[in-house]
Amino acid sequence: MKILIVDDFSTMRRIVKNLLRDLGFTNTAEADDGQTALPMLQSGDFDFLVTDWNMPGMQGIDLLKSVRADPNLKDLPVLMVTAEAKREQIVEAAQAGVNGYIVKPFTAGTLKEKIDKIFERIDGN
Amino acid sequence: METQDKLMADVTLEQAKHLLDCLEEGNIQAARETIDSLSQIREASLFCEVGKLTRQLHEALANFQLDDKIAGLAAQEIPDAKDRLNYVIETTENAANKTMDSVEQCLPISENIRDTADNLLGDWERLYRRELKPGEFRELASRVEEFLKSVGNDSTELNKLLTDVLVAQDYQDLTGQVIRKVITLVQDVEENLVDLVKMFGRTEDFKRAQNETKKVTGAEGPVIDKNRDDVLTNQDDVDDLLSSLGF
Asked: What's the alpha-carbon Rg for chain B, to the nearest Å?
C-alpha cells in the first residue's frame, strides 16, 4: 500500500506520516501542494491519497477534481484532512468524489476510523 | 462669547435708538456719524467670526498630525509586526519538529521493550510448562538479565527524550508575548483608521460596514468565529452532513 501525503506544512505531513506508520502503512511519499502531487500520482503507483485543502499553487479540492478527471487515477481513494469546515465546502468535496473528510485538529483515532471505513467500502465493492 | 454678543447687541440697540432720535431731531450730521459707528460694530463682529474660523482651521490642522502617526505605523510598526509573525511561524515549526524528533526516537525504544518482553514472556511460560531443556534455561536466564539491564538504560534514554519534549514547549511563552504585541498594534491601527474615517465624515459608511455580514467563499483556513452558522465545528457534525449526503 503506497500512500501520498499532500500538505503545505511539513509538520502536518510529518504527523500524518507518523500516524500512518503506526497504523502499519510504512510506504509513504510527500508533496507540498497539488501541482507537485499530480505528476507524482500520474507517474507513481499510489494506492491512496491524503490531502489538505488550503495550499498555495493547486488547492486540494482542485487536486481531487483533477484525480477524478484522469482516467488512470479516477478510482484512487482520496481522504481530505483539512481545517476547511464550511458546509458548502464539505458538500463540494463530496460532490467532487472525496472518499473521506477529516477536519483539523484531528486525533489518531479519527484517522484510523476513516481509513478503515474507506477500505471496508472498497473491499465490499 | 455669549456675553460679548449680548454686549454688542446692547450697544447696537443704543446706537439705533440714538440714530432714531437724531433723525427725529433733524440732526443729519449726527445721524450719519451714528450710521458709521453702527457699521463699525458690524465689521467688529465679522472679525470675531473670522477669528472663530481661524481657530477651527488650526484645530483641524492639528488633528492632521494623526497622519504622522499613521506614517509611523506603516513605515515601522507594520513591517516589524510582519517580522514578529514570521518569528511565530518559525518558532512553532521548530518546536513541532523538535518534539517530533524526540517522539520518533522514543517510539523504536518503547517498541523494542515491548517486543523483547513479549518474547521473554513466551519462553517464561514454556519454563512454567517445563518445556525448556537445561541449555535453553541458561540461555533464557542470560536473556532476562540482559533485558533487565537494558530496561534501565532505555528508561534513562526515554526520560531524556521526554524532557526534551517538555522543554520544546517553551515556544508557547515566547510566541504568546510576541502575538500579544501584534494584537496591541492591530488595535492601534484600528483606532487610527476609525479616527480617519470620522475625520472625513464617513461615520455612516462605517456604521453600515460594521453591520454588514461578510461572505467568504473558498478556502480560508480555521474559522475562529463561533457564531458563524455556515461552519461546522467538529468531526461529528461533518460525519452527519456527509451521511445525509449518502456517504
From this structure: 43
pLDDT at position A125 is 64
* pLDDT band (50, 70, 90) for residue A121: confident
Nearest-by-Cβ selection for B232 from A61, A85, A104? A85
Cβ–Cβ contact B89 with A under 8 A: no
Cα A105 off chain centre by: 15
* Surface of B (183-242) touching A: CB under 8 A: 217, 219-223, 230-235, 238, 241-242
Q: Pick out chain B residues at pLDDT < 70.
A: 1-2, 4, 64-67
Give tens-digit pLDDT for A30-58: 999 999 999 999 998 999 999 999 999 99
Instruction: Please give the residue of chain B at the shortest CA–CA distance from A81.
Output: B235
Task: List Cβ<8 Å contacts ≥24 apart for A118-121.
Answer: A118/A77, A118/A79, A119/A77
Beta strands in A43-99 (DSSP E): 48-51, 78-82
A28 has a chain B CB within 8 A of its CB:
no
**Adjacent-strand bridge partners of A86:** B231
CA distances from B173 to B66, B72, B98, B169, B178 (A): 34, 28, 16, 8, 9
Set of chain A residues whose Cβ sits within 8 Å of the Cβ of B93: 9-11
ipTM: 0.87
Angle at B184 between CA B178 and CA B187, to 5 degrees: 145
pLDDT, residue B14, reads 86
Q: Are A99 and A79 in contact (CB under 8 A)?
A: yes
Beta bridge partners of A19: none
- Which backbone phi and psi does B217 adopt, to 5 degrees? -110, 155
A83 touches chain B (CB under 8 A): yes
Dig out the grid coordinates for A29 from the structure. 511519499
Cell of B186: 492591530
Q: How far apart are alpha carbons B154 and B148 in whole angstroms? A: 10
Q: Which residues pair with A5 in a beta bridge?
A: A30, A50
How many Cα atoms occupy the beta-carbon half-sphere of B80 within 13 Å? 13
Which one, of B241, B233, B239, B244, lies nearest residue A117 by Cα? B239
